[in-house]
Amino acid sequence: MQTETPVVETAAIDTNEEYIVAHNAVKQPPVLTSVFRYIFVETPKDFFAGIIGFFARYIRHFIQGFKYFWSPSLKVAPFDTKDFKEDSQRTFELSLIVTAFLIFMIKAEWIPANEVLKDFYDQDITEMVMNFWIFLLFGTA
């Protein structure tokens, strides 16, 4: 009796030979050049583009708001397809930013204050009450 050995099909061995051959190699930029470009060119570009985009969003919002004053109809373009929830969110965000900036400028004494009011608002309890009222105002808005 003869035993047959099972025939095992050999799969093609996967090598990286196709990457080693010179004519298949893709010319890549040096790593240091890529890192340098990313740190000193791409990062500042993205940073400043984000800042410009942030302010451009509110500028476009106000321009569209003034357009609405000239033709106050929701049936006229661009107001017929506009999402007013997004506009109200942008207005609220802007009011938060302006209020926070004003509070910072008052605390840093960039905006001069009346001495009587300064003495009144420098008290801890009065400051907490004012912060609570600002919180309630924005919470209900």
- The count of domains is 2
Strand tally is 0
Please mark out the parts with pLDDT under 50 across 5 or more consecutive residues, or reply none.
Answer: none
Distance between the termini: 93 Å
Write a structural description.
This protein has 141 residues and is mainly α. The chain folds into 2 domains: 29-81; 83-141. Helices cover 65% and strands 0% of the residues. The protein contains 5 helices and no strands. It has helices spanning 17-20, 31-70, 84-107, 115-121, 124-140. The protein starts with 16 loop residues before the first helix and ends with a helix. The model has no long low-confidence stretch (mean pLDDT 77).
Looking at this protein, list some descriptive labels.
single chain; 141 residues; mainly alpha; 5 helices; elongated
Topology:
Elements: H1 17-20, H2 31-70, H3 84-107, H4 115-121, H5 124-140
What's the short version?
By secondary structure, the chain is mostly helical. It contains 5 helices and no strands. The protein has 2 domains: 29-81; 83-141.
